[in-house]
């Protein structure tokens, strides 16, 4: 737990499906991580130990989490929740922008300043693809069960199966738990490989950048993605928080 701390910049909070991440942008415009966890009460205590002007929130979890945060921060800091909006030099392909997940939208905001064509592969609870052209057109994407969900779907159908959180050695499992782990990891790898090819088809050329983010991005073998030129693949595990920082920057300059 942090001691009482005064910061001049807003706090950035990502509420994911399984955990939260709290950070701030330093004077050097880099992310400084303040905490990560899964329980709400330690997060509330952490935020209350920091004096900040406001808290910017990206929430894909329960709406009541944000309400609880509002209550806890009352009189201390303003809580501002990011919502999907048109603009920001991005043309969304969704007729109803509110149907696009705020986490996916924020990853678009994070990469847009580079003015490059990008394929974003976000390996979290769900694994998603989003394709953005160099002129800011969102061409759409994919959504599939993430690595953990794939494993859970298997074990829910049989009392004999279970998940082993330790990564097995080798490419072929020599036990059921290892086989499940490696099989689901192969499915994740296949998603990423096909996502690159789909992005190439949509853009009519390979994207300038393939960005892999999310907690399970480390399970994707970047060197095994098909025909991707060297230097194109980049791992940025906290892209949603980067996008949240861009959202705040836009709001402050508006």
TrEMBL record:
Compartments where found: Cytoplasm
Principal localisation: cytoplasm
Record keywords, A-Z: ATP-binding, Coenzyme A biosynthesis, Cytoplasm, Kinase, Metal-binding, Nucleotide-binding, Potassium, Transferase
CDD domains: ASKHA_NBD_PanK-III
GO molecular function: ATP binding; metal ion binding; pantothenate kinase activity
Residues reported to bind ATP: 14-21, 125
Top-level EC class as recorded in UniProt: transferase
Biological processes, Gene Ontology terms: coenzyme A biosynthetic process
Pathway of action: Cofactor biosynthesis; coenzyme A biosynthesis; CoA from (R)-pantothenate: step 1/5
Gene Ontology CC annotations of this record: cytoplasm
Cofactor(s) needed for function: K(+); NH4(+)
Active site, UniProt feature: 103 (proton acceptor)
Annotated cofactor note: A monovalent cation. Ammonium or potassium.
Binding site for substrate: 94, 101-104, 176
Binding site for K(+): 122
Assigned EC number: 2.7.1.33
Catalysed conversion reaction: (R)-pantothenate + ATP = (R)-4'-phosphopantothenate + ADP + H(+)
Record's subunit section: Homodimer.
Family (UniProt): Belongs to the type III pantothenate kinase family.
Summary of the function given for this chain in its UniProt record: Catalyzes the phosphorylation of pantothenate (Pan), the first step in CoA biosynthesis.
Protein name (record): Type III pantothenate kinase
UniProt lineage: Bacteria, Pseudomonadati, Pseudomonadota, Gammaproteobacteria, Alteromonadales
């Amino acid at each position: 737990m942090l001691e009482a701390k005064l910061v001049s910049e807003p706090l950035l909070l990502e509420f994911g499906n399984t955990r939260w991440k709290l950070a701030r942008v330093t004077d050097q415009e880099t992310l400084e991580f303040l905490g990560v966890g899964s329980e709400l009460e330690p997060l509330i205590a952490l935020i209350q130990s920091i004096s900040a002007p406001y808290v910017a929130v990206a929430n894909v979890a329960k709406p009541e989490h944000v309400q609880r945060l509002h209550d806890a921060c009352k009189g201390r800091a303003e809580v501002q929740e990011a919502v999907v909006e048109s603009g920001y030099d991005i043309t969304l392909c969704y007729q109803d922008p509110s149907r696009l997940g705020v986490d996916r939208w924020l990853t678009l905001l994070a990469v847009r300043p580079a003015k490059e064509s990008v394929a974003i592969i976000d390996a979290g609870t769900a694994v998603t693809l989003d394709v953005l052209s160099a002129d800011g057109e969102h061409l759409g994407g994919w959504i599939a069960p993430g690595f953990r969900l794939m494993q859970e779907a298997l074990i829910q159908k049989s009392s004999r199966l279970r998940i082993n959180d330790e990564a097995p050695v080798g490419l072929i499992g020599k036990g059921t738990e290892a086989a499940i782990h490696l099989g689901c990891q192969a499915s994740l790898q296949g998603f990423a490989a096909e996502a690159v090819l789909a992005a190439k088809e949509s853009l009519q050329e390979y994207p300038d950048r393939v960005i892999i983010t999310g907690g399970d991005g480390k399970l994707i073998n970047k060197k095994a993605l098909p025909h991707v030129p060297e230097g194109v693949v980049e791992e940025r595990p906290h892209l949603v928080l980067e996008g949240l920082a861009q959202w705040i920057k836009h709001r402050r300059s508006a």
